[in-house]
Amino acid sequence: MTSTGGGRLIIRNGTLIDGTGADPVASARIVIEGNRITEVVTAGDAPQAPLDPAPGDRVIDAAGGWIMPGLIDGHVHLSSHQGFIPGVPFTSTPEYATLWTARIVANVLHAGVTGISVPGGKWYVDATVREAINGGLIEGPRVFCAGRALTPYGGIFDTSNPLTGKGSDDAVGVLCNTADDYIRETRLQCRRGVDMIKIADSYWGDTQTVARNEIAAVVDEAHRRGRKVSIHARGSGSTRDAALAGVDWIFHADLATDEDLDTVAECGVPIMPVFTQCQIITGLSVAEGFDPKMRDRVKAQLDTNFEAIRRARARGIEILVGTDSGNAAAFHHGRHHGREGEILVREIGMSPMEVLTAYTSRNAKVIGLDGQVGVVAQGMLADVIIWDADPLADITVLQQPERLKAVIKDGRVIDRTSTAGFLPLESEPRRAVPR
């Protein structure tokens, strides 16, 4: 970790994209004291007195660069999969998953992603790693996490033995088959300190496995306890019922009809489509674990989802950004977080500025910091990144962490030159199951 010390951090001379959707402004000067932005001055403001650095101040000359809020990825899995480590025997235990997650999480931050929302993982590993980051024990982005996803028999995370009905202890989901089950598990996870509850309906959305009253029971219990609720809902019925139940955001919505989307719009619920994982699968080979039949099914589902999200956007439904990084096909943490932006521009018709706003100020809500991060402005928490190229001219810049001139999280300049202790991106996941 690199600290700014006791002085100020001054960024000057770059072009500012502030995260609000406003036009970029040249010759920006940003002053950070502690973990807050205390001043933002641009060429369009009234003349300002020169700011002479004082002893202890650190200055970043961003000339030729583009300054913006740190990226926020709203769908990242940390503990769900662990990679092969040569010579290390694998056992699926909380201890192993925690060590793995603690070792790779800085890769996400080094890619310019200063905040992530984690919709499910093993045991309470993600909450433990979040606490270690917040306590300064390890380095990583801001983490806003669920525990295990709440799923019924037939749900996407159902690992139950058909003879016993019992699921595996190391599953990313926990079985809930009545409203009482859902309430009990929500209370248990809140007691452990999760930030949100994740509900998981069926794999493809062709059947609805979670009833509206069960979704509503979770929402009521979680909201009374100050937690958010998200749902994996690819199907028509689960998308509509989730909106009516008042979830905070919906993942996917592939098969949503016009009537479903009208309901989502009326209820004011955002959708996070999460295209990246499936888009990667469509280009993978049999040797990489995806046969042609699976690829064709995913491609058809993806095309259906593109169309649904175009219709959602036309209705004014807020579109959020998540990548499913850390899942099977998008396994490598730090590699795929910017890919969703290109897909949203190419397939959904969003402008690059709309994409940047979705990655920043819109996505602030999915890490529980709406109005505190996602915008470069006076009083905001100082999560700032600087690129050496213009992401508005080429949205694929977001996929090129090597083009980052600086990453600042909570007012600290992150030392990205040291990779000691971080696993290589080439390490492979232990399991390859698309979600």
Could you please describe the fold and organization of this structure?
Residues 66-413 form the Amidohydrolase-related domain. This is Amidohydrolase family protein. By secondary structure, the protein is of the alpha/beta class. It folds into 2 domains: 9-70 and 375-413, Roll (Urease, subunit C, domain 1), CATH 2.30.40.10; 71-337, Metal-dependent hydrolases (TIM Barrel). Strand 11 (196-200), helix 4 (212-224) and strand 12 form a beta-alpha-beta unit. It has helices at 94-110, 125-134, 179-192, 212-224, 236-245, 258-267, 276-281, 292-314, 339-348, 352-362; strands spanning 9-16, 25-33, 36-41, 58-61, 66-69, 71-73, 113-118, 142-145, 149-151, 173-175, 196-200, 228-233, 249-252, 271-272, 384-387, 404-409, 412-413. It is globular and about 75 Å long. Helices cover 29% and strands 18% of the residues. The strands form 4 sheets. Strands 1, 2, 3, 4, 5, 15, 16 and 17 form an 8-stranded mixed beta sheet that branches. Strands 11-12-13-14 form a 4-stranded parallel beta sheet. Strands 6-7-8 form a 3-stranded parallel beta sheet.
